[in-house]
Write a structure and sequence with these properties.
globular
């Protein structure tokens, strides 16, 4: 049961964190000038966006959950199972960020899911 909770945090918190950071950076805008002052201004603008802080917090939760999972299980099991974040990321991009996910990407998501299933079944 502990493993399920840890994997849920890794996958869901990590993916939600990435989606929040992506939303924040879309609000901030792209970096057009790579001089140190311009980069510092983009960083300061990003730090004023609430989505950035939510994303960083969620990604920290995912990271510490990953540490917990690695303390309990083999890395050869943990890392492939965390690939389910690709599935969650595609769904989140489509629903939360309103991105278009092409059929080819969905095929890739399906292949990742099959691979994770094989790893999971091989561990039991």
């Amino acid at each position: 049961m502990t493993e399920v909770i840890l994997f849920s945090f890794i996958i869901l918190a990590g993916t939600c964190g990435e989606l929040c950071v992506s939303r924040a950076m879309k609000a901030v805008g792209e970096v057009k000038d790579f001089h140190p002052l311009a980069i510092a201004q983009v960083i300061l603008r990003a730090l004023r966006v609430g989505w950035m802080w939510a994303g960083v917090g969620l990604m920290a939760l995912a990271f510490f959950s990953l540490l917990g999972a690695l303390a309990l299980l083999n890395v050869s099991f943990v890392v492939p199972v965390t690939a389910l974040s690709y599935v969650a990321g595609a769904c989140g991009a489509m629903f939360f960020l309103r991105e278009r996910v092409s059929p080819r990407r969905w095929v890739g998501v399906g292949l990742v899911s099959v691979g994770v299933t094989l790893v999971f079944l091989g561990n039991r």
